[in-house]
Specification:
It is built from 2 helices and 3 strands, in the order βββαα. By secondary structure, it is of the alpha+beta class. The protein has a domain of 43 residues. The protein is elongated.
Length: 62
């Protein structure tokens, strides 16, 4: 793979990747769905990329 790393793009996975067993990643839709007990939250990565990284930093610390 030939690419240039973007140091401004945060990685949101703070836990070990395989510990997120109830997380669904839909690459085609750009959605990340996380489930805990009966609660579910969806992140639309494509929409989130439209905002400056300063606003995203707060979400990265959850």
């Amino acid at each position: 793979m030939d690419f240039t790393a973007d140091e401004e793009t945060p990685i949101l996975l703070g836990r070990p990747f395989f510990a997120t067993g109830r997380t669904l990643i839909d690459v085609e839709r750009g959605e990340l769905t996380m489930r805990v007990n009966t609660q579910e939250i969806k992140f639309n990565i494509l929409k989130a990329m439209k905002y400056p990284t300063e606003e995203i930093e707060e979400v990265s610390r959850l």
